[in-house]
Amino acid sequence: MDQSFEIVCLLEDTASQAFGLALPGTALAQQLFSVCMANGGGGQDHLGLVCDLEVMGHHEIATS
Q1: Burial of 52 (0-12, 13-18, 19+ CB in 10 A)
Q2: Cα–Cα distance for residue pair 10/58, rounded to 1 Å
Q3: pTM for the model
Q4: Helices 46-57 and 24-38 meet at what angle, rounded to 10?
Q5: Which domain of life, per UniProt (predicted)?
Q6: Which of 6, 25, 29, 53 sits 20 to 30 Å CA-CA off 16?
Q7: Distance of CA 40 to the CA centre of its chain
Q8: In which band, very low, low, confident or very high, does the pLDDT at 1 lie, cut at 50, 70 and 90?
Q9: What average pLDDT does the segment 3-16 reach?
Q10: Residue 28 belongs to what domain range?
């Protein structure tokens, strides 16, 4: 299966402050992408983000 956008690209996209608006959803996305990057997941796609959410929540979402 092909990967979608890498986390590093998604983080760069959310870093744009072109409109000067307070966007709480974007801030949350930036935090989650940053956690993923800090855990070495910059080359992962959205699945890497889900894996980090599992680790942070101490809960496995699904088994293979």
Answers
A1: buried
A2: 24
A3: 0.68
A4: 90
A5: Bacteria
A6: 53
A7: 12
A8: very low
A9: 76
A10: 1-14+23-64
